[in-house]
Amino acid sequence: MTDQPAPLDARLRGIWRRTVERGEPFPSEPALALRLGASRPAIREALIRLEHEGLIGKRKGAGTAVNRAAMEIPARFDQQIEKSELIEAMGRKAALEVLESSVITLSVVEAATFELPPGSPALRVSKRWRAGGFPVMVAIDTVPLSTPSLPAGVDIGVSLFELVPKLGHDRPAWELAWPSAAKLDGKVATWLEQPEGEAVLTMELTGVSRRGARVYRAFEYHYPPAFRYGLIRLVPRSPSRRHPPERRRRT
């Protein structure tokens, strides 16, 4: 399997964004194929993915409808995006800091999550993102290791998605996410520069490879005013009719 769909999707999202900002119609498939140097089938498949994301709507015999309201949701529950890119997209300068890092041994519960024996080694990294100098998110990432020590030359300050393959794992293909809320404890409250007991949005995340391996676990604390998360739901084109309409009796 090639890595072509990801950059093609990203370029199409860029075209979608520009059409929304300029109020222009979305280009046709032939125009997109010529513009992006891709085949018509590849463009068609990528457009199907954009439609599933709720960014466009296609209907046979009609032009491509553009969901301009989707611009109102910069942070989506149904998509993973680099936090620095998200912060920059919201018009603020992003900065990432590594707060703590250590090689640990997995507890019984953590090991079961990774489907590994208890006591297996793992790297744990705590990071903080700032937006315009203000702390907005803390993430505590855990990635299993094949040896009891961190491989030489590995930069733990890179993106989690870059770090995982550097530690010998397949790249994650899916991410399972469980949003919730919590009150800040002492350490995380200090990292976010918020008082203890402050309510924050939390995200518990598990990265899964195409072969089904759990390649990371992450726990994120989001300062609510900084990120307004949302999602886009596709509405059925025809209302479902579980019960047929009542017919009037002829008199």
Show unreliable segments.
1-6
Beta content: 25-35%
CATH topology of the largest domain: Chorismate lyase
Question: Could you give a short account of the major beta sheet?
Answer: 6 strands, antiparallel
CATH homologous superfamily descriptor of the largest domain: Chorismate lyase-like
Structural class: alpha+beta
N-to-C series of helices and strands: HHHEEEHEHEEHEHEEE
Number of helices: 7
State mean pLDDT (0 to 100 scale): 87
Number of domains: 2
- Principal-axis shape: globular
CATH class of the largest domain: Alpha Beta
Q: Count of DSSP E strands? A: 10
List the helices and strands and how they pair.
Elements: H1 5-22, H2 29-36, H3 40-52, E1 56-57, E2 65-66, E3 75-76, H4 83-89, E4 94-105, H5 108-114, E5 121-131, E6 134-144, H6 160-166, E7 172-183, H7 186-192, E8 199-209, E9 214-222, E10 229-230
Parallel strand pairs: 3-10
Antiparallel strand pairs: 1-2, 4-5, 5-6, 6-9, 7-8, 8-9
Helix pairs in contact: 1-3, 2-3
Overview of the molecule:
The protein has 251 residues and is α+β, with helices and mostly antiparallel strands. The chain folds into 2 domains: 5-72, Arc Repressor Mutant, subunit A (Orthogonal Bundle); 75-230, Chorismate lyase, CATH 3.40.1410.10. The protein has helices spanning 5-22, 29-36, 40-52, 83-89, 108-114, 160-166, 186-192; strands at residues 56-57, 65-66, 75-76, 94-105, 121-131, 134-144, 172-183, 199-209, 214-222, 229-230. The chain has a 6-stranded antiparallel β-sheet with strand order 4-5-6-9-8-7, with helices on both faces. Strands 1-2 form a two-stranded antiparallel sheet. A hairpin with a 7-residue loop joins strand 1 (56-57) and strand 2 (65-66). Helix 1 packs across helix 3 and helix 2 (29-36) packs across helix 3.
